[in-house]
Design goal:
CATH architecture of the largest domain: Orthogonal Bundle
Structural class: mainly alpha
Bound molecules: iron/sulfur cluster
CATH topology of the largest domain: Endonuclease III, domain 1
CATH class of the largest domain: Mainly Alpha
Number of domains: 2
Number of helices: 11
Shape: elongated
CATH superfamily of the largest domain: Hypothetical protein, domain 2
């Protein structure tokens, strides 16, 4: 691997600037099993952090294991996770996933990315977050914030988030693979925003090439 010291310094600087980091909506301290991390990550897609936390807590009070979940009627799951985005589809997927885990994996979440990706509603982001937060495996969870910021900083040049994970693995030291998602999501919400980033108050503005940035404040 060809790690880049400038990249490491930039991550250190952003991390220090944001400290103490607020806790993410999906975090092992909050959701203590691989199963609850997987389900909470599903709920979090296209949903605000606060809504995710409340929806997941309501659901896990009713059922926190696949065996408990399959005993719930679909409507009960829908009610528990409402108003998460696409709550009806997510509820159906949660039920289907729970059945598959019981039938094919002995009620356990598979520790394997391909197996996770075969579950209904599970994409690369959900699979990587489950493997990294649930099992501590070194995967980079790429969402729109990570993709946008890594490109603006000039670390990588990728068109789609799907290409970004592999590209980042070449330039980011392994110790940052798991935390980089949380750091850049918070940084993307507070400073390097999607539209008109706050470059004037950014801790790395002196070295950032601002690739693709048209307007900034
Ligand atoms: S200088 Fe601007 S574009 Fe670069 S990381 Fe900071 S906020 Fe983002």
């Amino acid at each position: 691997m060809n790690y880049n010291q400038d990249t490491a310094d930039t991550i250190e600087t952003i991390h220090a600037f944001l400290s103490p980091l607020p806790r993410p909506s999906v975090h092992p301290e909050h959701f203590s099993s691989e199963y609850t991390i997987l389900i909470a990550t599903l709920i979090s897609l296209r949903t605000k952090d606060r809504v995710t936390e409340q929806a997941a807590s309501r659901l896990f009070t009713l059922a926190a294991t696949p065996r408990e979940m399959v005993r719930l009627p679909l409507e009960r799951i829908e009610d528990a996770i409402y108003p998460a985005g696409f709550y009806k589809t997510k509820a159906a997927n949660i039920l289907a996933i729970s059945r598959i885990l019981l039938q094919q994996y002995g009620g356990r979440v598979p520790k394997d990315r391909e197996a996770l990706l075969s579950l209904p509603g599970v994409g690369i982001k959900t699979a990587n977050l489950t493997l990294s937060l649930g099992y501590g495996l070194p995967y980079i969870c790429v969402d729109t914030h990570v993709h946008r910021i890594a490109n603006r900083l000039g670390w990588i040049r990728t068109k789609a988030p799907e290409q970004t994970e592999t590209a980042l693995m070449r330039v980011v030291e392994k110790k940052w693979w798991i935390p980089i998602n949380h750091i850049l999501v918070i940084f993307g919400q507070k400073v390097c925003r999607p539209v008109s980033p706050l470059c004037s108050s950014c801790p790395v503005s002196a070295t950032c090439p601002r690739e693709g940035v048209i307007t900034h404040r």
